[in-house]
Design a protein that fits this description.
By secondary structure, the protein is α/β, with parallel strands linked by helices. It has 6 helices and 7 strands, in the order ββαβαβαβααβαβ. The chain has a 7-stranded mixed beta sheet with strand order 1-2-3-4-5-6-7. α1 packs parallel to α2. The radius of gyration is 16 Å and the shape is globular. The mean pLDDT is 95. Bound molecules: iron/sulfur cluster (SF4).
């Protein structure tokens, strides 16, 4: 199973396939993996020591960044993510980023789980996906309902204040007008927005 994969000069960690969402643009329904990644379907979630064993085979400082970005939501395994990120920080200077839905408070039924990332994660990319809770529900389809949108906004504010390097993303499956409203929301929060092409 592919725990690690590379795209360009970044190293990706595929820590889980579990996800509480069912995004309309999710490529998992159509594809086994990304270009060059091999299959990203895991037989099971790898243990922290299995991830660390794979990382030991890599020259981490040769990468631009290491990214937690599974075929799933990495923060389903927030405690393992933190453990692995701390290990990476202990042996290298490489930047550590996470791509997330930002709804880990609902996943773990715990307030302010974002605090766990401070000090071991350098950058956070958060899927904004839509400008309002109703529209978010249609695109992201989280099992928690509309509450997920507000949890994601709260998570993003905390990360902005306490980690600093944060970016929102939307996929161009929503309309230009919706993207404009996402930009306004992102601007209000002082967070840059990246508009991504849907993977084909
Ligand atoms: S959060 Fe990511 S893995 Fe989960 S459904 Fe959406 S695109 Fe797919």
């Amino acid at each position: 199973m592919n725990i690690l994969y590379t795209i360009g000069d970044s190293l990706y960690i595929n820590i889980t396939n579990k996800c509480p969402c069912s995004c309309s643009f999710c490529i998992r329904k159509e594809m086994d993996g990304l270009k060059g990644s091999g299959s990203l379907w895991l037989d099971r979630d790898p243990s922290v020591s299995e991830v660390v064993d794979e990382l030991k085979k890599q020259e981490l400082n040769s990468y631009k960044e290491v990214v937690f970005c599974g075929y799933g939501e990495p923060l389903v395994r927030i405690h393992e993510v933190v453990e692995v990120a701390r290990y990476i920080k202990s042996i290298s200077n490489v930047k550590v980023r996470i791509n997330t839905t930002g709804i880990s408070d609902l996943i773990h039924k715990e307030n302010n789980t974002a605090r766990l990332l401070v000090g071991c994660i350098d950058a956070v990319s958060i899927s904004l996906n839509a400008p309002t809770a109703d529209e978010y529900l249609k695109v992201t389809r989280p099992k928690f309902g509309a509450e997920a949108f507000y949890a994601m906004i709260k998570f993003s504010k905390y990360v902005k204040e306490n980690i600093g390097d944060v970016a929102f993303s939307v996929v161009n499956v929503i309309s230009d007008e919706q993207i404009e409203r996402c930009k306004s929301l992102a601007d209000e929060m002082g967070i840059p927005l990246r508009v991504r092409e849907k993977e084909e």
